[in-house]
Design brief:
There is one protein chain. By secondary structure, the protein is an alpha+beta fold. The chain is globular. The protein has a 5-stranded mixed β-sheet. It has 6 helices and 10 strands, in the order E-E-E-H-E-E-E-H-E-H-E-E-E-H-H-H. It binds zinc ion (ZN). The site of zinc ion has 7 residues, from loops.
């Protein structure tokens, strides 16, 4: 490391794994980290994040910490507003929590937005004016970058294609809605279909499934509207839609 070259830590917080890296100003990866996520409690998660920063720093203080999160980060406050696959962090001011524990400036961002920005900077979208990135992991995320800047939308949900409703009578999603793309093409959807008895092999089971589907439709009609469905819930308005960082 030269005297004028800053280094940074990036953390990718997933529903199953925590991944991290230390990079220099050119994006070159200097060290990596990959470990199972400790989501038994909020405190366990925060301790793991702080420990990961310390491990990656290797006694060389970094200039800042970027944190990609599987949820919506409020544009104005920096709080994690909704994390369907990591609910222990809901409502948390993660920038303040990580900064307090590590002494480093921290910048939380939706993980797909962060990945899209990285691809626009150094990856597949390097020469493109507009970039859409789709993430396939525990859930499904999406991020939009226009002319080198993240477009989060007025409510912060722009690009979140995993929570587009594609099957109105489908399975309940972690976001509170029903039949989101994530419930079909995410890990839980694949597992559910693999475990489901085939209709041809068991007509009685097929009948029960049909009955269960009807009752789930009835439940949906009385369910609390999901914050992911801006058509039913007015979005929180806090900013122009462009990320500042
Ligand atoms: Zn959803």
């Amino acid at each position: 490391m030269t005297a004028n070259t800053a280094e940074y830590v990036g953390l990718d917080v997933g529903g199953t794994f925590l991944k991290g890296a230390r990079i220099d100003e050119t994006g070159r990866v200097l060290s990596r980290l990959h470990e199972p996520i400790r989501k038994e409690s909020r405190e366990a998660l925060l301790a793991q994040f702080a420990g990961a920063v310390k491990t990656l720093e290797q006694d060389v203080p970094v200039a800042g910490v970027g944190i990609g999160l599987p949820g919506i980060v409020d544009i104005g406050s920096g709080r994690l507003r909704s994390a369907p696959n990591l609910s222990a962090l809901n409502g948390l001011d993660l920038a303040a929590e990580i900064s307090q524990r590590t002494g480093r400036r921290s910048f939380p961002e939706n993980d797909a937005n962060a990945a899209a920005l990285a691809e626009a900077w150094l990856g597949a979208g390097r020469d493109a004016e507009t970039v859409l990135l789709v993430t396939l992991g525990t859930g499904i995320g999406g991020g939009l970058v226009f002319h080198g800047r993240i477009w989060a939308g007025r409510s912060g949900y722009a690009g979140e294609i995993g929570h587009l409703q594609v099957e109105p009578e489908g399975a309940r999603c972690g976001c509170g809605s029903w039949g989101c793309l994530e419930t079909i093409a995410g890990i839980a959807g694949w597992v559910r279909r693999a475990e489901r008895p085939s209709r041809a092999a068991s007509p009685r089971c097929a009948g029960r499934a049909s009955s269960a589907r009807r009752s789930s439709w009835a439940r949906r009609r009385t369910a609390t509207p999901s914050p992911w469905r801006s058509s039913t819930t007015p979005p929180v308005r806090s900013g122009s839609g462009w990320r500042r960082h």
